[in-house]
């Protein structure tokens, strides 16, 4: 039974100054599953992702990936663990000093300018996967629209064929149609590449479309989790208030 | 009574805050150095930084040196004429330029140009999550961003100082020969006599430190920037101001120790 857990968080806690952001998170994500964490801005969704990636060190708790405890990993072990991950950042976080093709292949080259012909080919393949033409290979990120930047960032995240992909607010800042394009892309990538996905979002349409299961984070704890079909019928007043977007309710 | 305790508490908080900042800076500096001396290197990035930091600083450094050297010669002449010691002009120009003015002025000019640019660039990368993206793409920001800047600072600033010294001495020569009627050959001869290897070593040691501080402050403040555009603005200001202070402080210490 344990064998199928790709990611397990147990009692993960993190405090910044006086601000307790995570107060003992428990969460299991199955291999090949797409999980979404919903919650208000500032509820600790991003910190959860950063803890798993080793960008932030939790104060307490354990995080296991493929059964291996990854908290406090260093050097080569940390590198090996990170090689399993791809991440789509909220603002795309493309390197604006580099052309698109070097952005997309960054995980493969580690930023070194080598093997250009081959790398351009790989970049073009990955761009095609996210529905972009190879015409943009030599452009700079600032020359693209927000939606296209997001897709390039997606291509960059999948280029090294990670086992796990994190999506940080993948649809924020996009119009509803572009947002749905990204949702479709995420669904098809998760299926085609067989990756485990973890998305944090407060876009309910997006959560319902891309996730198999949804968990809600409130005041540093997971207060509800369930299949996406139950999201609007959870029986939990906090979840109800959140998914229906009401100002009135238990959440202040 | 409670007012006294409150006073001590706030002094203590300030002190603890300052010490914590110093500790963070020391850890950062240590990581920056250890990544600069160990492979793998990024030769392309180092060259890029040498160009930005060194080559593109040449015009402003050259102008600073020639204007300062020319003014310096006039002031030494004015002061010297009160003691019938105007013949000291070439000697004092060469010492003042090579040991003090050259390194300090170049350090300050380059800090103004480069520490600010580094803090702005790295700070923007921080607030747009590009630094996190680097890490998740398995590239250590210390290796990719910081080590090339530190290495470039250590190479470029001493070279700039050597060039500035030569130009500054020429500025002094210009004033002395064309305005104060010094004999050209005699002026150059005296300059050569008074310019010793120790002076040049001194200039190189100082400028090595300055180059390190310029890159370190730019990177450090950029790295810990937060809070959007305003945060990047603050980081830029802090980088320049702290680089200035460190340059002037370390210059004083080196001068006082070397001649103490």
SSE topology sketch:
The complex is a heterodimer of chains A (252) and B (260).
Chain A (H helix, E strand, L loop, with lengths): L4 E12 L2 E12 L3 E5 L6 H9 L6 E6 L2 E2 L5 H8 L2 E4 L11 H5 L1 H4 L6 H14 L16 H13 L5 E5 L7 H18 L2 E6 L2 H7 L2 E6 L2 E7 L9 H8 L8
Parallel strand pairs in A: 3-8, 3-9, 6-7, 7-8
Antiparallel strand pairs in A: 1-2, 1-4, 4-5, 9-10
Chain B lengths: L1 H36 L5 H11 L4 H24 L7 H39 L2 H7 L4 H38 L5 H11 L2 H27 L4 H32 L1
Rg for CA atoms of chain A: 18 Å
Poorly predicted spans of chain B: none
Q: What fraction of residues of chain A sit in β-strands?
A: 25-35%
Q: Mean pLDDT of chain B, nearest integer?
A: 93
Strand content of chain B: under 5%
Alpha-carbon distance between the two ends of chain A: 39 Å
Q: Estimate nothing, just give the exact number of structural domains of chain B.
A: 1
Strand order across the biggest sheet of chain A?
6-7-8-3-9-10
Number of strands of chain A: 10
Order of helices and strands of chain A: EEEHEEHEHHHHEHEHEEH
Helix content of chain B: over 70%
Q: How would you spell out the order of helices and strands of chain B?
A: HHHHHHHHH
Radius of gyration of chain B: 22 Å
What shape does the CA trace of chain A take? globular
Broad structural category of chain A? alpha/beta
Q: Number of DSSP strands of chain B?
A: 0
Q: Greatest chain-chain interface?
A: A-B, 23 and 16 residues
Number of helices of chain B: 9
Structural class of chain B: mainly alpha
Function (chain B): Could be part of an ABC transporter complex.
Subcellular location (chain B): Cell inner membrane; Membrane
GO cellular component, one term (chain B): ATP-binding cassette (ABC) transporter complex
Main location (chain B): membrane
């Amino acid at each position: 039974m344990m064998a199928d857990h790709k990611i397990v968080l147990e009692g993960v806690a993190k405090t910044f100054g006086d601000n307790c952001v995570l107060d003992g998170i428990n969460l299991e994500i199955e291999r090949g599953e797409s999980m979404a964490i919903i919650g208000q801005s500032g509820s600790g969704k991003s910190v959860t992702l950063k803890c798993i990636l080793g960008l932030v060190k939790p104060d307490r708790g354990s995080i296991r990936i493929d059964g291996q405890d990854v908290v406090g990993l260093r050097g080569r072990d940390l590198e090996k663990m990170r090689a399993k991950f791809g991440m789509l950042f909220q603002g795309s976080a493309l390197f604006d000093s580099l052309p698109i093709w070097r952005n997309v292949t960054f995980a493969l080259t580690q930023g070194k300018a080598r093997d250009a012909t081959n790398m351009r080919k790989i970049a073009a393949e990955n761009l095609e996967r996210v529905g972009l033409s190879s015409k943009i290979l030599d452009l700079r990120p600032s020359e693209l629209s927000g939606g296209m930047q997001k897709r390039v960032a997606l291509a960059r995240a999948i280029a090294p064929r990670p086992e796990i992909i994190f999506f940080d607010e993948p649809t924020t800042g996009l119009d509803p149609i572009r947002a749905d394009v990204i949702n479709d892309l995420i669904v098809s990538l998760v299926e085609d590449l067989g990756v485990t996905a973890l998305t944090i979002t407060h876009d309910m349409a997006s959560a319902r479309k891309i996730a198999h299961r949804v968990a809600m984070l409130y005041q540093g704890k997971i207060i509800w989790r369930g299949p996406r079909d139950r999201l609007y019928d959870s029986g939990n007043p906090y979840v109800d208030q959140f998914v229906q977007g009401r100002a009135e309710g238990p959440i202040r | 009574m409670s007012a006294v305790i409150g006073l001590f508490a706030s002094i203590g908080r300030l002190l603890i805050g300052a010490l914590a900042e110093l500790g963070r800076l020391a850890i950062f500096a240590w990581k920056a150095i250890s990544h600069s001396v160990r492979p793998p290197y990024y030769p392309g990035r180092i060259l890029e930084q040498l160009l930005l930091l060194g080559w593109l600083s040449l015009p402003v450094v050259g102008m600073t040196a020639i204007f300062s050297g020319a003014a310096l010669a006039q002031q030494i002449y004015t002061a010297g004429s009160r003691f019938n010691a105007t013949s000291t002009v070439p000697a004092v120009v060469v010492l003042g330029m090579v040991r003090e003015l050259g390194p300090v002025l170049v350090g300050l000019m380059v800090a103004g140009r480069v520490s600010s640019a580094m803090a702005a660039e790295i700070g923007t990368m921080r607030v747009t999550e590009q630094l996190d993206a680097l890490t998740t793409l398995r590239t250590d920001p210390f290796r990719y961003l910081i080590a090339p800047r530190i290495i470039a600072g250590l190479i470029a600033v001493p070279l700039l100082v050597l060039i500035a010294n030569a130009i500054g001495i020429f500025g002094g020569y210009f004033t002395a020969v064309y305005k104060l009627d010094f004999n050209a050959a005699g002026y150059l001869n005296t300059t050569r006599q008074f310019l010793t290897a120790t002076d040049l070593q001194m200039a190189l040691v100082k400028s090595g430190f300055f180059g390190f501080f310029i890159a370190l402050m730019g990177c450090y403040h950029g790295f810990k920037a937060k809070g959007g555009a305003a945060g990047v603005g603050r980081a830029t200001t802090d980088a320049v101001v702290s680089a200035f202070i460190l340059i002037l402080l370390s210059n004083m210490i080196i001068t006082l120790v070397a001649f103490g």
